[in-house]
Amino acid sequence: MLLTALRLLYILAASGATAVFVNSLSTARPDLVNAHPFLTWLFVTALMSSLVLVDLIVRRKRIEDISAVYFGVLVGSLLSYLLLQALSPFVAGTSWAGLVEIVVPLALVYFSVSFLLQTKGEFRFIIPYVEFSRELKGGRPLVLDDSALIDGRIVGLAEVGLADTLLVVPDFVINLVQSVADSPEKTRRARGRRGLDMLQKLRDLPGNHVRVEATGEELTGQAAEHRLLTLADELGARVVTNDQNLARAASARGVGSINLNVVANALKPRHLPGDRFNIKIQKRGEAPGQGVGYLDDGTMVVCEEAAPKQGFEVQVEVTSVLQNNSGRMIFSKLAV
């Protein structure tokens, strides 16, 4: 909205200032302006309005801080003053001096404000005792896609503190999950509702670090994956997803990503039922006939009928794995 208002004000100011110039009673106006005042007004207004078109072509624009407007006006005014001083020997006393004095300040102020708005908080001004810079809570932000919300494992990571950073949920991702929740298909509807429930759980966590990001109109109409990666790139964030193709696209664009399936695979137990390995039986277990050994990471291995093998290394086969908050215990039997 602020950029839209800026563009409208700029076009109105350019149009009004040009109209005042061509309708003034000054005799110092160029003969071309005197002969064709309306065409001159139309041409100059269109020329200055074309700067807005150039600005629209560069689509990376997003309002972060209203102070950008203030600094943009200051910088633009300073630059226009310096440029007018440099141009004064060439235009002073000519019939174009009035038009130059209108065009230069408007154009430079507009571009200064627009540039600072498009930096989205990444700019830094340092003046004595005052520093304006982007502040991020914790590490790099994490941008969640719809698959990560529906999956729900991000909630567990946040609960234990592994995702102790700003979690960004774009508004279009919420719209996608909401559309799934409104689906007439029962399975899809359940998945969508789960995604909305997971978002609410994230918001209810102590020390809530969840922010719903309202994306700018410049991203409207683009594919959701492209919008997600563009937003993550602008925020300097990583994308959290279950979509392997999205993770690959993020890597191709130089955007960091976290695939929850890869994380889960990295955290799965080293030994699963049916696996075989060698272990030294170090002592007898609590139940009759049990022998107890330990892996190199300290995990206790209980082996049935291994008490007579105390002090010896045997091959065992995993029968089950007990995992809780206190750690992990492996139950096994002697391999045949």
From TrEMBL:
The chain crosses the membrane at residues 35-54, 66-84, 96-117. Residues 270-331 form the TRAM domain. Keywords: Hydrolase, Membrane, Signal, Transferase, Transmembrane, Transmembrane helix. PROSITE patterns: TRAM (PS50926). It holds the Pfam family TRAM. It comes from the Bacteria. One of its GO terms (molecular function) is transferase activity. Residues 1-19 form the signal peptide. InterPro entries: PIN-like_dom_sf (IPR029060), TRAM_dom (IPR002792). Its EC number is 3.1.-.-. This is Putative PIN and TRAM-domain containing protein.
